[in-house]
Amino acid sequence: MKKSWKKALLAGLSIVMMGSFIAGCGSDNNGAANKDVLKVGVTNFASTLEPTENFFAWVVMRYGVGETLAKFDEQMKPQPWIASKWEVSPDHKTWTFTINDKVKFSNGKKVDAAAVKASIERAFEKSNRAKTFFEYDSIEANGQQLVIHTTKEYPNMPGLLADPLFLIVDVQAEKDGRNFAKEGPIGTGPYVVKSFTKERAEMAANENYWDGTVPFKTVEIPSIDDPNTRAISLQSGDVDMAVNIGPGEIGLFQGNDKFKVDEIASLRVVLARINQKGILGDDKVRAAVISATDRKNYADVLLKGTFIPGSAPIPPSMDYGFKDLKDGHQKLIYNETDCKLNWQYMRLKLDTELREYVEFQCQDKIWDMRGIAVDTVDGYGRIDNLINPLFWVGTDTNRRVFFYIDSVVVSQE
Question: Which 3 state secondary structure label does DSSP give 405?
């Protein structure tokens, strides 16, 4: 039982971290004298445990203190967690979440829709990042039913609410005097904060945990920033598990029966930037450099198999049809220009008085657009001469395509 929970905890830590190329290693012959204590070596960037500060909610979730309404599976699809199910109105602007009737906070209080409502509203009050996920008109709570009315369509609300920023906390506990930053929030996870500093944290088992037995009474979490020191600590038995073992040290544990290596593809992408000066000002040269880049050897040899070769800005760990790409590559644009693999400059000129297109430019090619009708919509009250840039991409075959926009500049003569 203890081995399986170690693996489950480790996988959870690595998924939440998002940047782990190697999720971590766990020793099967635990060197710790006390079998009720699990020691996990990590890298910690949080100076407090206030979930709305910076990105510290990731650490709160990573330490097993907080949980969200939904969580992601290995295909990055949202699955029920604190919410047992959800449904959406036909216009995708009203979402109804059913809160699992079994969920409790670590202080024993039942989690109902009102508590979830208060927690989400707290996130919006304290974090400017919250509104970058979604904006709402109102939130209603009725027993275990939480209804969120949004300002516009959000087809993936469960996925948005799976971000650690929206982990559910007991707001009333803070009002009663608990300092979330120093003492940690009251959440719904398997552990509660016993002590915390940036250098070291200690978690205790949540006696009121709603989702099964918590196997370790105590989890000690020293922050070991140097990957070599982290690996040495794991070898010596100072820690039982460690996350983010580097490419230079992972070979010490692979194939070693005393350790279990658990890896999962991350969502992080490593990019090499190319300037457009000098010889690289020639788009054919840039295309040649890109074509000659041996991503597989870089990943397998230089980075010792801890990276996966990529072929698009979106990582292959996400379910975006990469398995359907021939040889792992996709032609990005039609052959209208000499450059296929780089950003394209585009310009659309409109006559705002006549309300008609004038011309469209892509790189050095210009098309006369006069006579092509402009799409118009009903006017907005108190707003004149509004121009809404809309972008879409079409395909001539049944396949998935992407259209990436770097920036949009609107100017008027």
Answer: coil
Query: Between vectors from CA 335 to CA 290 and to CA 317, what angle results, nearest 5°?
Result: 50
Q: What is the rounded distance in angstroms from the CA atom of residue 64 to the CA atom of residue 221?
A: 11
The span from the CA of 157 to the CA of 153, in Å, is: 9
What is the Cα gyration radius of the chain?
26
> Parallel, antiparallel, or unpaired for β 241-242 and 24-27?
antiparallel
Contact predicate 231/248, CB 8 Å: no
Residues in the chain: 413
Helix segments in 101-210, DSSP class H: 113-126, 130-133, 157-160, 171-175, 180-183
Question: DSSP letter at 300?
Answer: I
Residue with tokens 């990042």: 129
Integer angstrom CA distances of residue 264 from 7, 21, 320:
12, 7, 17
The one-letter amino acid at 377: V
First to last CA, the chain: 71
Measure the CA angle with vertex 254, ends 322 and 3; round to 5°: 95
The reported pLDDT for the residue numbered 332 is 46
Measured CA to CA, the distance from residue 305 to residue 205 in angstroms comes to: 36
Cβ partners under 8 Å of residue 313, min gap 6: 269, 271, 404
pTM over 0.85: no
Kindly report the number of other CB atoms within 10 A of residue 34's CB atom.
Answer: 12
Average pLDDT by stretches of 10, the chain with 413 residues: 34 28 40 75 93 95 97 88 96 95 98 98 96 95 98 92 97 97 97 97 97 95 92 91 85 86 77 83 85 84 80 66 59 45 73 81 83 66 64 67 70 71
What is the torsional sign of CA 156, 158, 159, 161?
positive
